[in-house]
Amino acid sequence: MCELLAVSTSRPSRLTFSLSALSARSASPGNMRDGWGVAYCQGADVALFREPVAASDSELVRYLEREGPATTLAISHIRHATQGMVTLANTQPFVRELGGVSHCFAHNGNLVGIASDPRFELSGRYQPVGQTDSEHALCVLMSQLASIWDGKQRPSLELRRSTVAGFAASISTLGPANFLYSDAQVLFAYGHRRIQAATGRVSAPGLWFLERHCSIPPHPGDEQLGLRVHEGDQSVVFVASVPLSDEAWKPLQEGELIVVSEGAVL
Asked: Quick one: which of 65, 69, 30 has its CA closest to 48?
């Protein structure tokens, strides 16, 4: 299955991702060769980098691991293709505009039959560019959010949360539905089920999170994470498909949705 990682910080920082560290701890590390992507949220927009190649073969990955741009929120994805060819159009994260801001989405799982299910029919503005279940799911979510968005007036956090929660509950009937979604203000992380490395079975948890307060010098867990927050003395939340260090990561229960903003779980 694919691998997800998001980092939220209390103030802008240059985050160094190691996608190789993420894939090394996956349930199927040898299969993570179908693409990778990282989205760095910057105000209302997103700096998006993605390629339909193995992260281990990419010079761009090695550059971002050293020189990733400053942000308070980043979302990354390593693809193991289950639906759709290995192409750029099928490489996550996916980004769409609504209300004058860039919305970012990455999914881990397999939503069988979503394109043919009448509950998830697409007839409006949002349409997939590629052939993945994940991008179709994002278009469904964006269509639902558009119904509560009044121009550039952002809905209340509770209304956005309830809309995302309803969307998550509906797509989870099709299969594993772990996802990360950002509306350029907060991160929504939904944990469902995934293949567990220890058993090979599909079960919860599908996501884990870690809350940390960073200070100078760098935190000793950074080396295990393969990720460093380059500005100290701030709060940080990590969300990942699997724990990436020996620290006290907390599992999301099956069907649990958390909202994260500026290094804190709200």
From this structure: 69
Q: Are 221 and 245 in contact (CB under 8 A)?
A: yes
Number of domain units in the chain: 1
Q: What letters, b where the CB count within 10 A reaches 16 and e where it falls short, cover 47-80? A: bbbbbbbbbeebeebeebbeebeebbbbbbbbbb
CA distance 168 to 178: 9
Model confidence at 251, pLDDT cuts 50, 70, 90, reads very high
pTM for the complete prediction?
0.91
| Contact partners, residue 164, CB within 8 Å, separation at least 6 | 141, 145, 181, 188, 190, 257
Distance between CA 225 and CA 230 in Å, rounded?
Answer: 14
CATH number assigned to the domain comprising residue 101: 3.60.20.10
- The end-to-end CA distance of the chain, in Å, is 28
Answer left, alpha or beta for residue 88, where phi above 0 means left and psi between -120 and 50 means alpha. alpha
Question: Residue 19: which of 54, 46, 67 has the closest Cα?
Answer: 54
Q: What angle do CA 178, 29, 51 make, to 5 degrees?
A: 75
Q: Is the dihedral of CA 110, 196, 56, 191 positive or negative?
A: positive
What does the pLDDT read at residue 27?
46
DSSP string, 148-195: T-BTTBPPPHHHHHHHHHHHHHHHTTTS-EEEEEE-SS-EEEEE--EE
pLDDT, tens digit, 9 for 90 and up, residues 110-127: 999 999 999 999 988 999
**Residue 158 contacts by C-beta under 8 Å, 6 or more apart in sequence?**
none
C-alpha 37/C-alpha 135 separation (Å) is 14
Whether the pLDDT of residue 228 is over 90: the answer is no
Q: Which domain holds residue 246?
A: 3-265
